[in-house]
Amino acid sequence: RAIDSMYACTRRDKVLLLLGIQKQILEEAREQFSYPKLLSDKFVVDTSSLTVDDRKNIYDLFEEQYIQTKIASERSSVIAQKQGQAYKALDKDKESIVNTESVYGFPLACRLYFDQEHFHELGVAFFNRPDANLLNEIEKLRKEKTLSYLLLVYILLCGKIDIDNLNEELLRRLYTALDFTEGLKAQGVSNWKISDALDTLKKPYLEKATDTEGEYQFSHKTVSDNVLLSFGKVAPEIVIEECSRCHLFELIRTQKTKKSNTELVIPPKCFKALAKRLCKDENSGIERSIKFHGNVKGKNLLNIAFNIVWHPVSSDEKFVESLLLLDT
Fold first, then answer.
1. CA 280/CA 110 separation, integer angstroms
2. Are 153 and 141 in contact (CB under 8 A)?
C-alpha cells in the first residue's frame, strides 16, 4: 500500500523517486499474486549491470580519494609524490578487480575496500568475496569479546546509539548473551570507553546519525545485515524479538527456506518465538499480541495474516506446526 501511494505521487506531481531494493527481495515480492506497479520491469533499473568501463571509473574515483588522504599525512612533498604512485593498483590487479562479480555490488565493495586497511591489504582477493570478508571481520570482534562488538549489536537492535541516552537494561542483557567476563555486567561501562570504541568503528561500520555529538548509526545496511548474521548465531531468540521488521522479513529463515548465505537460519527451538513475533500487529504503531480465538478487529487480523503469509517461513511445514500450536 505504501509503495502504491509513492507511485501515485509520481504520477500526480513532479516527483522523482529513487527506491533501493535488494534483488532477492524484489524477486520475492514479485512472487506474490499482486505486487505494486512500481516494482514492474518498466520502473526497475538493475544497478548491478555495470559495464567494465563503469567499474573502472568507480574504482578510479575511490582510489584517487584514498591516495589523496594518504599523501596528505606526509610532511615531505617528495615522499608524498612517491607514496602516491605506490598506492596505485597495478594494471593487471585493477583489471581483475573490475571484472569480479560482488554480492553487494561493485560500488559498496570499493567503499569497504578503501575504508578498511584490513580489506585493502587483501588486494584482489577481497573483491572475490567482500561479503565473507566483512562477516569475518565482525566475527573476529565477537570472538575477541570486544566492547566494539557489543556496541554493534546494540545499534543493530536499537537502530542507533546515543551515548547520553543508553538502554541500560538492553546492555545488561547483551553482556549476559555474549558472556562477557570483564566485569561489565556488574559495573557497566563508562561513557568515555564507549566513545573510544565508537571511534574505532566509524570506518567502515558507522556514521553520525544526527548533528548531535555521540549519536551514531550504521553506515550501510550491509553492515547491519552482517552484524545480525553474526549475533543471530549466538542469540537467535534476542534477534527474533528485537530486530527490525525489515530484517525480520529479509534475513530470518528456516533451513528449508534458506536461499543464500546472506540469510540467518534459525533452529527449530526458535520457531515458537518467530511465530509469536509474526503474530503481532506492528502496522498499528503499537505491537499487540493477538489471540487466535479472542476478539480481534478485522484490520488487525488481516495485518497478522499478511505477516505470516508473506514471510518465506510460511512454506516450511515444521514452522507452520509451531504456529498452529500457539495459544497467543
1. 40
2. no
Nearest-angstrom CA–CA distance, 291 and 295? 8
| CB neighbour class for 49 (10 Å; exposed up to 12, middle 13-18, buried from 19) | exposed
Single out the residue of 14, 117, 32, 19 nearest to residue 312, CA to CA.
32
Please state, in angstroms and rounded to a whole number, the distance separating the CA atoms of residues 159 and 292.
31
Inter-residue contact 22 to 250 (CB < 8 Å): yes
User: How do beta strands 161-162 and 215-218 pair?
Assistant: antiparallel
Q: How confident is the model at residue 183, as a pLDDT?
A: 43
Quote the pLDDT of residue 80.
Answer: 56
Distant-in-sequence, close-in-space partners of 189: CB < 8 Å, separation ≥ 6: 147, 171
More confident residue, 289 or 34: 34
* 3-class state of residue 110 by DSSP: helix
